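Appendix B, record 7
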Amino acid sequence: MMHPIIQHQAAMTRRNFFGKMAQGLGVAALGSLLNPTPLMGSAFRGIEGSALPHFAPKAKRIIYLFQNGAPSHVDLFDYKPMLERWHGKQIPDELVQGKRFSTMTGKQQNRPLISPRGKFAQHGGSGAWVSDLMPETAKVADDLCFIKSMYTESVNHAPAITFFLTGAEQPGRPSMGAWLTYGLGSTSDDLPAFVAMTSRDKEASCGQIFYDYYWGSGFLPTRFQGVKFRGGGDPVLYLKNPPGMSRQIRREMLDDIELLNEINLKQYGDPEIITRIAQYEMAYKMQMSVPELTDFSTEPQHILDMYGPDVHRKGSFAYNCLMARRLAERGVRFVQCMHAGWDQHRNLNYQLKTQCKDTDAPSAALIRDLKQRGMLDDTLVIWGGEFGRTPFLQGKIEDYNNWGRDHHPYVFTLWMAGAGVKPGITYGASDDFGFNPVENKVHVHDFQATLMHILGIDHELFTFKHQGRRYRLTDVHGEVIQGILA
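Structure tokens (predicted):
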């Protein structure tokens, strides 16, 4: 017969062992991780409690208009007359020597430069150069801060997007919205602190995939991941109770489930149980808040017209931009709108124009809309992709219908507007061909450090210990871009 102690050890599972040790290893951390309010799924201060923000923030929230596929900087915002003069001529060898490109042009021998696809002009009191492919954006140029010296490390889409949004090229790190929600918490009682929405070009010409880890929580507790709003039907599933289930019955059922979950929480101290409680509560509240959120009937017609004809088409970029404003004014801290369709390898001469038409007016409308409501003063808006496009041609110059531009991580442009940044300025510069940065280079981690600074966070101090190491969004480097701060 087995000794009782040995029998007990043999029967103990790994889960029981860690759960029973000091009432669960997670219990020691719960005092600093939790307060009663977040368990109920309503507004909360964030895990770090009184430690954040580190200093007075300029912005309360961020709306990130991420342009998947990489918009062409030399066709839209970075005017290079040299490309017009050198049209059809081979790019200087010293520029491309030793550079890495995608497999689509990596072995291409002839790399002729091509002129911008649109016509550039200066706009506003700032004199910002903007292509006529972006006429509405040009009208709000004095509200924008252009960074024309961005550069990144990856030459392919998914790693480059992941790098921008999580600080690493490999999946598994928390996304920017998850970091900020974890640190700063929520200011909305009945909507998530972090919402993600996606859209794509009507022609579906771009094969970009939206991966869940673009708005994931990585190694942070999963309750800080972004809530993905769907592009068709109800934004989230199960907004309506099933037949025979009243709201009162639902409330009583959730109360009972919460009691059971809290028993498990006390026994095991598993932070994911907290996620489960918070998700049930948020889902209950969203049954009331989301139908009101998506009801555009209260919007004045001139506002709807400003966003463009696609504003009523669910899943369109215009619809998501208006939703972003409505989410922001209801207290959502981070709204991530991702729009695919910019990967113009062989359809530059016709798809670029279409893509600009779909995104230009809604982007500018969001700036105007926030500004006239006084919300641009505490909202930071970002527009940009994961890298730029090559100033030289992908393909053969005689094959006009298949002209394209390849991926270009070495320099590109994005713009920001609103709280914390100077309006009507251009920061940084590329060379005469739009190939390399030559003034005030801005790395992705510099960009991330600056966003966190605007929200009152010192990016070097804001860390999370995982697998024996302290991680941060900016990994091990990054400097705040002081020249753009308001």
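Remarks on this record: The CA atoms of residues 178 and 230 lie 19 Å apart. The radius of gyration is 25 Å.
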